[in-house]
Amino acid sequence: MVRRAQGKPTIADVAALAGVSVAAVSKVVNGKGSISAPTRERVLTAASKLQWTPSAAAVALRSAKTRAIGMVARRSPDLLSADPHFTLLISGIESELSPLGYGLLLHIVGEEPSAEEAAYRRLADERRVDGVVLTESLIGDTRFDLLRTLGMNTVLIGTPWRDDPVPAVQATGLDSGIRSAVEHLVAHGHQRVAYVSGPEDRVHTRYRRRVFEEALAAHDLTPSHTIVSDFTAAGAVDAVGRLLADRRRPTAVLFANDSMAVAGMSAARRLGVDVPGDLSVIGHDDLPLGELVYPQLTTVRQDLVGLGRAAARVLLASLGEIEDATVDIRPPELVVRESTGPLTSREPVHPT
Amino acid sequence: MVRRAQGKPTIADVAALAGVSVAAVSKVVNGKGSISAPTRERVLTAASKLQWTPSAAAVALRSAKTRAIGMVARRSPDLLSADPHFTLLISGIESELSPLGYGLLLHIVGEEPSAEEAAYRRLADERRVDGVVLTESLIGDTRFDLLRTLGMNTVLIGTPWRDDPVPAVQATGLDSGIRSAVEHLVAHGHQRVAYVSGPEDRVHTRYRRRVFEEALAAHDLTPSHTIVSDFTAAGAVDAVGRLLADRRRPTAVLFANDSMAVAGMSAARRLGVDVPGDLSVIGHDDLPLGELVYPQLTTVRQDLVGLGRAAARVLLASLGEIEDATVDIRPPELVVRESTGPLTSREPVHPT
């Protein structure tokens, strides 16, 4: 007879139903120690029948914390170092983990979604971390379902896709930076403003583009051009080549990240186009890169360190390490430097 | 009576002397589970009396591998993202760890040496990693002694200080890049070449400066100026200001990293100095940054991904995971782009 307590099922119930020891169930959930495939199968079937969820398992295992948080960066090494916004997020995360003796387990995987999923499965199977930080929310993101199945504490930096109830951290006044960028350009007389966005599979890509369009619409303007790019320098150079070849070329361009903006600005100048005299350029994120270059980059600042800190505190609170997860995240804001201004050159466009 | 076996002490001897279970000793060494301070003290005293060393403990615990490697980056967040060479090292390390199911535990600490040492102590005390990768070998480096005391597998990326027997990985033909840079400048007629180095506490800082001086000496030249800087943009801007204010200003400058070179180039252009027409600029590392800017940066390429891979393989071999630690690391080489060339402007110097 299967012993089955009333109310919430326990690990003992699962062990009894599977006909194995509690230690064996623990091993299966833990991913540690050797366990035969049939035993593993029996345990999982029993857990499923009793509706003993992985999340309950996580609670049961709470005493065996790893004191590590995982983060998976899905980018090529070159793209990571060209656009080091991950570094700032990681610094923010670390600044909260470190005082509590938590470590950050980092995985850099290829661009394929399957590589990221495999990394999460391994982190869970081998019970390497107590939680994970996700970035770059995707349209139709499947990672949250996977992580729920794996019973993994999760926090997203960014806006969840639709109503996914994953805990997420983001700044308030999320649209303020891009709105200010458009206001700044319009105030300098720009009417033909282009947008070079990131890959369309990101939630923030669509959101920011909509904010851009709405901000222009408030001045009865529409985007002169919208180019979907890929965050790479080559993509930005290509986009600028196309924009400047147009007879009705834009007088200002917003880019979705700083490295595209810098690469785009350089491409324009190599073509003999003065920045900002012929073309104003605005980036996104405010990475140190933008201050190194000449002209210095006008950009939309994101509080990446604050976002990293907030994400870490959400996980630490859900692990019972701290009571209050609150962190002030500064809203995005426009940082005006040298790459934007009024048109000062002879108007290069011949309207038809 | 205390049971004490002949020969090497075992964990059982320590447990017996301390009057605790073997599991309790394991907990203390492991840093896992809860253990009272007095018990911990008793165990450590017993271990000390029996000369049961941390290194013996490491051997005893070898079956309990953490399957994680640690890396401590001692830089401020801003400096890390302005000069993302760590990102490329990490990518190289990860590419070797990942297929074997090893993770990389990353710690970003402040600039003080004590913060880095505290991080190593914690990694060892809490038994978080099976080994650590060190970078930026220091003059009179004390980290290796500490890590030996902690019984930690260690590998250094770079040249050890003096004859420290720490395992290290570096490229062959280490001087080839800077030599080629000097040859390239001299071939374009430059005779007044300045050097802006990194902090003097690094082994590579002194080495590269000596190579630079020897390469110039082969042409009966000496450095026009040598400025010790700090890898920051502000440091580079300051250095360029001083160099260009000199009546005998240099016609070419080598910088110790790419972000200083880009910031220095921008500072020169802001002062109305043409690059390369008035001033040739060379960086070091070949980060993606150098290709984003205009003019694109001539720089000494380091195989950072290869160095990261090699370091990971040395640790994996010492952990018995692989047999052959060999990785081809490409020697440093000069990558000629747009920031160097012959002087084309009116000679701005008035020799006295």
Task: Output the keywords.
352 residues, alpha/beta, 434 Repressor (Amino-terminal Domain), homodimer, Rossmann fold, disordered N terminus
Low-confidence stretches of chain A: 1-5, 54-63
CATH topology of the largest domain in chain A: Rossmann fold
By helix and strand content of chain A, what is the structural category?
alpha/beta
Rg calculated over all Cα atoms of chain A: 25 Å
What does the oligomeric state look like here? homodimer
Query: According to CATH, what is the class of the largest domain in chain A?
Result: Alpha Beta
% residues in beta strands of chain A: 5-15%
Q: What count of structural domains of chain A?
A: 3
Tell me the CATH superfamily of the largest domain in chain A. Answer: Response regulator
Q: Helix content range of the residues of chain A, please?
A: 40-55%
Number of strands of chain A: 11
- SSE run of chain A: HHHHEHHEHEHEEHEHEHEHEHEHE
Architecture of the largest domain in chain A, according to CATH?
3-Layer(aba) Sandwich
Which chain pair shows the most residues in contact? A-B, 48 and 48 residues
Topology (SSEs and partners):
The structure is a homodimer of 352-residue chains.
Chain A: H1 11-18, H2 22-30, H3 37-49, H4 54-60, E1 68-74, H5 77-82, H6 85-97, E2 103-109, H7 113-125, E3 131-135, H8 143-149, E4 153-157, E5 168-169, H9 176-187, E6 193-197, H10 203-217, E7 225-228, H11 233-245, E8 252-255, H12 258-270, E9 280-285, H13 289-292, E10 298-301, H14 304-318, E11 333-335
Parallel strand pairs in A: 1-2, 1-3, 3-4, 4-5, 6-7, 6-8, 8-9, 9-10
Antiparallel strand pairs in A: 10-11
